[in-house]
Design brief:
It is a single chain. This protein is of the alpha+beta class. α1 packs across α2 (67-74). Helices cover 37% and strands 18% of the residues. The two termini are 26 Å apart. The protein has a domain at 6-123 and 267-427: Peroxisomal Thiolase, Chain A, domain 1 (3-Layer(aba) Sandwich). The longest helix is centred in the middle third of the chain and has 21 residues, at 193-213. This is Beta-ketoadipyl-CoA thiolase. Keywords: Acyltransferase, Transferase. Residues 289-427 form the Thiolase C-terminal domain. One of its GO terms (molecular function) is 3-oxoadipyl-CoA thiolase activity.
Length: 430
């Protein structure tokens, strides 16, 4: 069977909004609708023309089960629209694109809306297991005697909930927090605190510059909170005045007192959503669409969860090499910035002949990525990392940045909690 070409034709996202100690103004579906509505309105075809809607989301809230379907209905895409939600932690938003890519390539679909949505500020508070067991006992108690007996088991700590986000960012196999996995990599590759801080500072400066130049204008859609009468028109976690002096004052977050990972050189906890439209050549011709890029290939990889931050290395390397490319022939890279130490460790691993030989099976080092081609407009350290969204955002932004800078190829890649990595190869279209 001949594989059909697949195109990324358009996309949009909300501003990424920094969590500030309580639930933000939007749920995951709210966010998906906020950027989905203007995206669909600017298309030359009806919103019911899609074959499928796929949405990545990790922290699904109880009132929005299968948020892909809820979002599709709220967007007015019709009762007949099939929609499903995918979850692969940080890779969920990229997985939605990859699934669309494979469906279209194989000829079963022509037009798919693929996205990611996450409202980390709405991550649930959960009861500890002992409290759940006590409430169950109370609920099953029959009569005053059994109820009184059950009441004797009540403990004050039962009313102190567990922060669901904290548990979600802790690997269930290794019991390491995601920040601790970055510390493991910093130790392995000799990443110094000052180097990590310098990378973080640069991420903020790059995003601030991109905002000032208007390079995100077609990508970021204003989100409107009708209850508060407020509009959100930009990523609000960016600190244009970020500097080494202020970063140096921050204490290590996970390994005190000598750790290299701090709140200042880590990705921010944020809310945000992103959509892209994925289309076949037939759909492009039928609707006279102008693609941003062609989706060429994708790759997923598994690795030790304790070094999950190397997921980009293990997924992007085989993707690039099997397509006849090398590091220097990739025009732009988007590597999701979970932690500065994690990104710098990936760069170091690719430039380490021993690592490339022993782990990647290469005869020599893959090479050193030019920082002028990596995360050119900042990344998750300045933007934030709404986990179910980030993989979608980096693919969308890569396509936009390739078009702006005239790059012929680009790779979007990310580490994924649990010991996974994902990568996607894009190619410019004439």
């Amino acid at each position: 069977m001949t594989e059909r070409p697949v195109y990324l034709v358009d996309g949009a996202r909300t501003p990424f909004l920094k969590a500030r100690g309580g639930p933000g103004p939007f749920t995951p579906v709210d966010l998906a609708v906020q950027c989905g509505r203007p995206l669909l309105m600017r298309q030359p075809f009806d919103k019911t023309a899609f074959d499928l809607v796929i949405l990545g989301c990790v922290n699904v809230i109880a009132d929005e089960m299968n948020p892909a379907r809820v979002a599709a209905l709220r967007l007015g895409m019709g009762e007949q629209m099939v929609a499903f939600t995918t979850q692969i932690n940080c890779g969920s938003g990229m997985q939605s694109i990859d699934t669309a890519f494979r469906y279209i390539r194989e000829g079963t679909h022509d037009l798919v809306l693929a996205g990611g949505a996450e409202a980390l500020s709405h991550a649930p508070l959960v009861l500890r297991q002992s409290a759940v067991e006590w409430f169950g006992e109370m609920n099953g108690a029959k009569g005053p005697v059994e109820q009184a007996r059950a009441m004797t088991g009540l403990r004050p700590e039962f009313f102190k909930p567990v922060i669901g986000l904290e548990r979600g960012l802790t690997d269930p196999i290794t019991s390491l927090n995601m920040g601790q996995t970055a510390e493991v990599l910093a130790h392995r590759f000799g990443i110094e605190r000052e180097t990590a801080d310098a990378y973080a500072m640069d991420s903020h400066h790059r995003l601030a510059h991109a905002q000032k130049e208007g390079w995100l204008a077609d990508e970021v859609m204003t989100a409107f909170d009708s209850d508060e009468g407020r509009a959100y028109d930009h990523d609000d976690g960016v600190r244009p005045d970020n500097n080494m002096t202020s970063l140096a004052k921050l204490s290590p977050a996970f390994e005190k007192p000598y750790g290299k990972v701090t709140p200042g050189n880590s990705s921010q906890i944020t809310d945000g959503a992103s959509w892209v439209i994925v289309a076949s050549e037939a759909a492009v011709e039928e609707h006279d669409l102008k693609p941003l890029a062609r989706i060429v290939d994708s790759e997923w990889a598994g690795l030790d969860p304790s070094v999950m931050g190397l997921g980009p290395v293990l997924s992007a390397t085989p993707l690039v090499t099997r397509n006849g490319l090398d590091l220097d022939s990739v025009g732009l890279w988007e590597l999701n910035e979970a932690f500065a130490a994690q990104v710098l460790s990936c760069i170091a691993a690719w430039d380490d002949p021993g690592f490339c030989r022993d782990v990647l099976g290469l005869d020599q080092a893959f090479g050193l990525i030019d920082r002028d081609r990596l995360n050119v407009d900042g990344g998750a350290i300045s933007l934030g990392h709404p986990v179910g969204t980030s993989g979608n955002r980096i693919v969308l932004h890569l396509a936009n940045a390739m078009k702006r800078r005239g790059a012929g190829t680009g790779v979007a890649t990310e580490c994924i909690g649990g010991g996974l990595g994902g990568a996607m190869l894009l190619e410019a279209v004439a």
